[in-house]
């Protein structure tokens, strides 16, 4: 389980995270980690929305690009991007030639540490595609085990609310686990 100080590398995307605070480090009110990204071609996660969380990206060094409410933006060192609950967005990606260092946080935490720990662990185990994505059944199982209400922005949320429990049950039948 993720704990403050745990460092995880994603060999597929080249990202590294170092947890500063996790759900088990306190009341679960915040999940925060240092997020290091090499130069990349774009976002590593599709446009999505968190209905019950605020997400923040504080740029420590480098230049970050991100998409918020279907519009592209850029942030420099010293700037903080605040994504309010319900806003369609992508994760930040590196827009510069050197490494991007973000302080990435979720308020409240709601299992975001579990999500990132699983995604990085699955990439390390060779269980992702070339972009670092897991299959839909695995994603549904992970999503069913955390409290974050995170949805893909390209699919109607009502449809996802109906389909994800079914996909998670199928995933568990096929042996997928959230941890």
Q: What are the segments in which pLDDT stays under 50 over at least 5 consecutive residues?
A: none
Please state the average pLDDT score: 92
Bin the helical content: 10-25%
Number of domains: 1
CATH superfamily, by name, is Jelly Rolls
Keywords:
single chain; 179 residues; alpha+beta; 3 helices; 22% helix; 31% strand; globular
What features would you describe in this structure?
With 179 residues, the chain is α+β, with helices and mostly antiparallel strands. The chain is 22% helix and 31% strand. The protein is built from three helices and eleven strands. Strands 1-2-3-10-5-8 form a six-stranded antiparallel β-sheet, with helices on one face. The chain has a three-stranded antiparallel β-sheet with strand order 7-6-9, with no helix packed on it. Helix 2 packs across helix 3.
Question: Could you give the topology of this structure?
Answer:
Layout: E1 7-9, E2 16-21, E3 31-37, E4 48-50, E5 54-61, E6 63-68, E7 71-76, E8 80-83, E9 93-94, E10 100-107, H1 112-124, H2 136-144, E11 150-152, H3 157-173
């Amino acid at each position: 389980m993720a704990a403050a100080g745990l460092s995880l590398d994603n060999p597929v995307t080249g990202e590294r995270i170092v947890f500063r605070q996790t759900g088990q480090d306190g009341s679960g009110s915040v999940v925060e980690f240092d997020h290091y990204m090499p130069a990349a071609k774009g976002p590593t996660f599709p446009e999505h929305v968190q209905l019950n969380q605020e997400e923040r990206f504080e740029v420590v060094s480098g230049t970050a690009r991100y998409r918020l409410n279907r519009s592209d933006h850029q942030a420099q060192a010293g700037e903080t991007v605040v994504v309010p609950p319900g806003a369609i967005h992508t994760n930040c990606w590196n827009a510069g030639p050197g490494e991007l260092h973000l302080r990435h946080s979720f308020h409240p935490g709601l299992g975001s540490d579990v999500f990132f720990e699983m995604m990085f662990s699955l990439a390390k185990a060779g269980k992702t595609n070339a972009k670092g994505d897991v299959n839909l059944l695995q994603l549904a199982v992970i999503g069913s085990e955390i409290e974050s209400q995170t949805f893909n922005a390209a699919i109607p949320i009502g449809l996802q609310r109906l389909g994800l429990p079914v996909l998670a049950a199928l995933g568990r039948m096929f042996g997928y686990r959230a941890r």
